[in-house]
Amino acid sequence: MTLKRALRSLRLALLCLFLAVVAVQGWYLFQVWQLRASQPQHSAFMARAAAQREQPLRHHYVPYSRISVHAKRAVIGAEDSKFVEHHGFDVEGLKHAWEKNRDAGTAVAGGSTITQQLAKNLFLSGKRSYVRKLQEAMIALYLETLLDKRRILELYLNYAEWGNGVYGIEAAARHHFGVSAAQLDAWQSARLAAMLPKPRFYDRHGSTDWLQQKTAIVQRRASQVAIP
Questions:
Q1: What is the pLDDT of residues 120-137, one digit of tens each?
Q2: Annotated domain spans of the chain
Q3: Beta strands in the chain (DSSP E)
Q4: Does the global pTM surpass 0.90?
Q5: Do the Cβ atoms of 119 and 134 come closer than 8 Å?
Q6: Does domain 11-35+68-81+90-222 have CATH number 3.40.630.10?
């Protein structure tokens, strides 16, 4: 193969790659645009869980107005205290998480915002890779551009995992406390927010000393949290 032909093949390959990237991003952008007025029946995480289970998942979508203000404050306080301020990324949070992981020698803290977590939950997998993290960042930008903070929080609360086969704040409230999402009190909301990093673990093992401590911390912080 001559050099000229090799360069032509390289240009063609790069063009195909570029067009593929544009097509993929266009698809994600369209999916996010649709979220302005509708919500998917299930998230990517829910679809994978459903394929591995014999019993149906527990999930019931509820609008923002039917979610306890305590739950909104607790989740923001526990997962993303600067949610109403940032544009999808918390630079200080990422720096803090990196330093904590570096000191521990392993991944013990995450720096993802609620927007980034929603991007992952709705569209991506839980596998750790630079490609997935980059795509997560792109989707987070689309979410912050096309949706307001209230809508982003509503979607996050409705698709977050809160136990084995339990998805969304309504199903979580009924599964763990026997009440609706609108009826969650301050302590119940703090407990659900504290469970978010390891929902299946706490669903199986119940309360632990660490979970009790985290619940108390989240409940104290929640009263100072701004919500959209």
A1: 999 987 777 788 888 999
A2: 11-35+68-81+90-222
A3: 58-59, 166-167
A4: no
A5: no
A6: no
